[in-house]
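Quick question, first post here. What does this chain look like in 3D?
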Amino acid sequence: MKQKKRRQDELLKILKSHHIKTQSDLMNYLNDKGINITQATLSRDMKELGIIKLIQDDSQMSYVVSGTQEIDDLTQLKEVFANNVQDVLQIQFTVIIKCNPNSANVLSALIDNHGYSELVASLAGYDTLVCYCTDEEKAKQLKAEFLKLK
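> Answer (accepted):
Ran it through. Tokens below.
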């Protein structure tokens, strides 16, 4: 358990002092500190510590520590949604989300992980996310769910 605590403490220190854009970069910093870690362990630590990837003031995505120690998927989705979504539109059986640059992929993954029953598939680009539903009514319901996140 001491090893986990040391690893997670070091992880938090790195994030406070460096602008980290990838898990690979984070693993390299940890390796430099003498901490060898697998990607799966790093991902678990990041989830436990509430580390999420957000768009920063310089329009680049990087890892940050959320305000809570443990963050659930919905909390993470709300945070990313609130900080990155500009507009939510419905066109027939699709819901289109206009996002800040470089944030559509992160948002798409969070939406897919959350498991909305109305959602059949999502497709993310640079600043746009398209969510496909089976019919207009489900798209209307999904849009309403998304608007609750803002």
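Strands lie at 51-55, 61-65, 85-91, 94-99, 119-124, 128-133.
The mean pLDDT is 87.
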